[in-house]
Amino acid sequence: MSESTTTPVDICANCGKEGSDVTNTCNKCNSVKYCNAACKKKHRKKHKKDCERRVAELHDEALFKQPPPLEDCEICFLQMPSLKTGYKYNACCGKRACSGCIYANATKLNDDDLCPFCRTPAPTTQKGMMERLIKRTKVDDAIALFGLGCIYSEGQFGLPQDHAKALELWQWAGELGCSVAYSNIGDEYLRGEGVQRDMKKARHYWELAAMGGHVGSRFNLGINERNKGNFDRALKHFMIAAEGGYADSLKNIKQMLMKGHATKDDYTKALQSYQKYLGEIKSSQRDEAAAFDRDHYRYY
């Protein structure tokens, strides 16, 4: 004999009506339903505090959720370093390789001008580089859009300095999954470059970047919370950033420990996760590349 099951019945939070037609959900917290718009409006004042609390809870759940794992280098299959000095983007094919593989490719061929993926020679002029980058933007390459935004932001390669254009490109890149683009928008609002200085918007974009896995933005959020005296939230941000390889987060957790805002266990966990990150990205080729020239294999 099978057990009977009952289907949950939706109930209007205002008038208590039950039924399948109670489908008008609060569009902020999604936690209560109403039978119509009139009931939603009548219940708004009573629901406001609970709604705001639930919205804040949902926001923090997303903000402090474990960020997506770092991608692997497509050549050596080791985890890609989180800092941009550890890899290079190839505008010819839109792929990235870690600094170790770029170095090994250059050493093997005695020539660092060939893409390790498609074997296309590197452009020899600024015009050639720009043509490749713009071509990649036309196929919605998020990294190319980010890079072009950086060029407009600095006014490089013959383009005029245009912060509005840079912000437009970074927004586009961020929506396509490039977390560092959101970080740059946050930095613009922090400095007030091309936009009015706005710390609320800076935090908003850093949060978007952090949720996408950008450790620098996660660190910025930790500093912001620490400065406001929100040590528990600051510690959460620093712990995630340390796990992603951001050394300054580890230093800040140690400082918080010395001031009584973190425990020895917190610091030990952060140190272990940071060391684990270092172990996962370490290779002899990457060490050789770093020793050869740290600046030679930067993003651009």
Description:
- This protein is mostly helical.
- Among the domains are: 73-116, no CATH class; 123-213, Serine Threonine Protein Phosphatase 5, Tetratricopeptide repeat (Alpha Horseshoe), CATH 1.25.40; 215-277, Alpha Horseshoe (Serine Threonine Protein Phosphatase 5, Tetratricopeptide repeat).
- It contains 13 helices and four strands.
- It has a two-stranded antiparallel sheet.
- β3 and β4 (95-98) form a beta hairpin.
- α3 crosses α13 (284-292) and α6 (163-175) runs antiparallel to α7.
- The N and C termini lie far apart (69 Å).
Keywords:
300 residues; mainly alpha; Serine Threonine Protein Phosphatase 5, Tetratricopeptide repeat; two-stranded antiparallel ribbon; 13 helices; 4 strands; 55% helix
Q: Helical percent range?
A: 55-70%
* Main pleated sheet: 2 strands, antiparallel
CATH level 1 class label of the domain at 123-213: Mainly Alpha
Strand order of the largest sheet: 1-2
Q: Gyration radius, to the nearest Å?
A: 24 Å
* CATH homologous superfamily heading of the domain at 123-213: Tetratricopeptide repeat domain
Shape call: globular
CATH topology of the domain at 123-213: Serine Threonine Protein Phosphatase 5, Tetratricopeptide repeat
Provide the CATH architecture of the domain at 123-213: Alpha Horseshoe
User: How would you spell out the order of helices and strands?
Assistant: EEHHEEHHHHHHHHHHH
**Uncertain parts:** 294-300
Alpha-beta content class: mainly alpha
User: How far apart are the termini?
Assistant: 69 Å
Count of DSSP-assigned helices: 13
Q: Approximately what portion of the residues adopt beta-strand conformation?
A: under 5%
Q: What is the strand tally?
A: 4
> What number is the mean pLDDT?
88
